[in-house]
């Protein structure tokens, strides 16, 4: 009876973690559809609109590794609940915003607490489920949420904006967080802190400032171009700071990101995979939504519903992949197959035209791409935290989220620039006098197909690079230790000690 109660409790914990993760993933896309309405209501410019997205990305990306390690040091339940409460409070302020500064400040605070919440949730999952079959099912559910969340965010954002108000894209987080806070407080066991651990302050300063500079540099490139001094300066500064951080980690007594985490081929492959997926997935959602709304005339809610097959397929494949395929084949063939499916879906999307229909031109690629995402998302979460001791679970989880955030920032800048150049080049080659609406539509579709070709190349290159890095066969090595169990180490004298 006690074992059954313990098992039931773990699955309830999974439900709480999945709900919290869904809230964070939804927020990455749910505000995109609400921005035009928010701009009209608050009266800010189109130039300022980018900051509603950038403010979140800067604070989220810059603080992930720091808060991941903080979760290890002060306890993951504490940081999980703090992240939930803070995220809900920031969302409430954002929903009630009366002007642009208030909205941007709330979005920045959302990013701060999201950076505290996301690695805490994944590290709780990694330390709660240790039996292989249970762990596979749990990460399958987590992968389904991660894979489907982006598309679901577009659906939820479209519905809330169309039928209620853009403000409900923020308020909905308060209701979700309230349920997760109650569940987390009652169900999640208190997590043991890392005994004697200290925070690597030089590492925190280097990685946080480096990530901030990189994310800002890519955001600036998307809005002002790659050749502007601010873009070049921030990207160069970010690269130098992150290089200094990497070198420092080999010298630090208690490094923020222990080299043992990233020197494992499977974990390194997982972190690289999530970066590639973050960069390419941006093109799937943003430019596909552009095409449906600008060219096909879909409403926000209709475009969200059009992506629902991708959400369903990716969720099913993620669950089946983690429970049936990962234990048997390991991550290598699944990552390769998933990224190649995503690449094939992008190539298929290059056939769209101004008069394309949904069933004939979009449904097939959407299903193929959803299957590819489902294969990859749960696998990288499970692989990136496999064999990690509880003392490193938070920072290992944060590394996955950092890769996704950095990949998304790169994708935003690169693909926006490519789209703008492709549309401009098409108009120069075809315009004779004043461009007609039909010509402008054709130029827009040409820019979308160009982006899809680039996304296909990104996914294909990722399949080669990540596949080469990942080891063959099922995941092997020491199973994750139970949370709170001491890790034996050996002093130079040869006597075992407990940490």
Question: How would you characterize this protein structure?
Answer:
It is a single chain. This protein is an all-alpha fold. It has two domains: 6-189 and 256-475, Up-down Bundle (Growth Hormone, Chain: A), CATH 1.20.1250.20; 200-255. Helix content is 79%, strand content 1%. The chain is built from 17 helices and two strands. It has helices at 2-29, 35-42, 46-74, 76-95, 100-128, 132-163, 168-187, 201-224, 229-249, 259-262, 265-295, 300-306, 308-329, 331-349, 358-384, 393-430, 437-469, and strands at 488-490, 496-498. It has a two-stranded antiparallel sheet. α1 runs antiparallel to α5 (100-128) and α8 packs parallel to α16 (393-430). The radius of gyration is 22 Å and the shape is globular. The protein starts with a helix and ends with a strand. Mean pLDDT is 84; it is low at 478-499.
Put the structure in a nutshell:
The protein contains 17 helices and 2 strands. It is mostly helical and 499 residues long. The chain folds into 2 domains: 6-189 and 256-475, Growth Hormone, Chain: A; 200-255.
Strand order of the largest sheet: 1-2
Flag low-confidence runs: 478-499
Give the mean pLDDT: 84
In angstroms, what separates the terminal alpha carbons?
33 Å
Strand content: under 5%
User: What can be said about the biggest beta sheet?
Assistant: 2 strands, antiparallel
